[in-house]
Amino acid sequence: MARVTSKLGLLARVFAGFAVVEGCSIGQGVFGARVDAEEEARTIASLTAKRAEKDAREAASREKRWFVRRAGSGAGDDAPPPPPPPPRRRRKRCVECNAAPHVRRVVEDLYLRGVVAPAHFARDVVFEDPAAACVGVGEVTEAFRALRFFAPRAEAPFEIAPLSATSYVVRAEVRYSLPFIGGEEGVVVRSDIIVTTVGDGGDEIRDGSDARGDATEAGKIKRVEERWGGANLLEGFPFDSCRRIFGWCCGVATPWLIPSRPAEAS
């Protein structure tokens, strides 16, 4: 009996710790300070460019030292120099020709209609918000299907802005009908939704993000990160792990709690 009691106590402490960590993650989303996504992207791009310039200077310095050593050793002029670094290719930035309108429509389908079209997403797509992290089209589908239960409706048109060649920020105001919270009017959630698409694998990603993937999935959405109120997510252990556990549980429990409609099942 004592062993059973001790195991139950240990399990209770584990659940209590999980609840505290999850509460902190959600609290950051609700009360955290807003971070401008576009300014953050510019800062990352600037730091990445500075690192690239530093690497170029170091490469030039190494090449210069190589020539000095060759000259000092009396080597002939026919000695081959070190191979030049591969040329850096830059993506062309074009607001008119990027995928922003398509990305905005996909995000509206997600948040207002709970529709996840597999053709628009990478196989290993990740959705993450302060509460949960879902991996794969299946889990993401169940997460947004569960969102329909709260009757989401737009308070204002969704706005989108490019952050880089492969990422966008969608600003959304969505009203949800939550039981026991907000009364009949519900609650309005204002979010910055960071959407990252798969790069084509040929051009260099210069904003510090890693959006490379299978060339057959180029242009598909690889990651959707929702920041409530524009606040950054708490990162690292144990927050990432707790969100992942909750996302997995959501993917398993949703089919049991909210059966699919015949049209969805087909």
What does it look like?
The chain has 266 residues and is an alpha+beta fold. Helix content is 43%, strand content 17%. It has 6 helices and 7 strands. Strands 1, 2, 3, 4, 5, 6 and 7 form a 7-stranded mixed β-sheet that branches. The longest helix is centred in the first third of the chain and has 36 residues, at 37-72. The radius of gyration is 24 Å and the shape is globular.
In short:
This protein has 266 residues and is α+β, with helices and mostly antiparallel strands. It has helices at 2-31, 37-72, 100-113, 137-147, 239-257, 262-265; strands at residues 121-128, 133-135, 153-154, 159-162, 167-176, 187-197, 221-228.
Structural features:
266 residues; alpha+beta; 6 helices
Please indicate the percent range of residues in DSSP E strands (runs of 2 or more). Answer: 15-25%
Estimate percent helicity.
40-55%
Structural class: alpha+beta
Radius of gyration: 24 Å
Structural topology:
Elements: H1 2-31, H2 37-72, H3 100-113, E1 121-128, E2 133-135, H4 137-147, E3 153-154, E4 159-162, E5 167-176, E6 187-197, E7 221-228, H5 239-257, H6 262-265
